[in-house]
Amino acid sequence: MTSDDAGTLVIGTAPIRAERLALAASDDSFHVKLNHDALTLIGRSREILEQAAASGQRVYGLNTLLGSGRDTVVEDKSILSYQVQVVRYHNSGVGPYLDRAAARAVLLARLVGFSRGGSGVRPETARFYAELLNRGVHPAIPFEGSVGSSDLTQLAAVAAVALGEGEAFDVHGTLVPGSKALADAGLQPLTLAAGEALSLVSANSYSVGVGALVLRRLRHLAELADVALSLSLETIARYDGGGNLSPFSPAIQAAKAVNGQRDSAAAVRRLLSGGWLEDVRAEVSVQDALSFRAAPQTHGAFRSLVSDLGEALEVELNGRGDNPLVDVGSGQVVSGGNFQPTQLALSFEVLRLALAHVGISSERRIAKLYPPQRAIRAKHLAAAANGSGLAQEELPGLLWYSAAGLLAELKFLAAPATLGAPTLSADVEDHSTLAPLALQQLEKSVEALEKLLTIEALTASYLLLEAGAVQPLGKGTGAVVGRLADVLADRPSAPDLVERARAELRDLVHHVIGPEGGEPW
Question: What is this structure's pTM?
Answer without folding.
Answer: 0.94
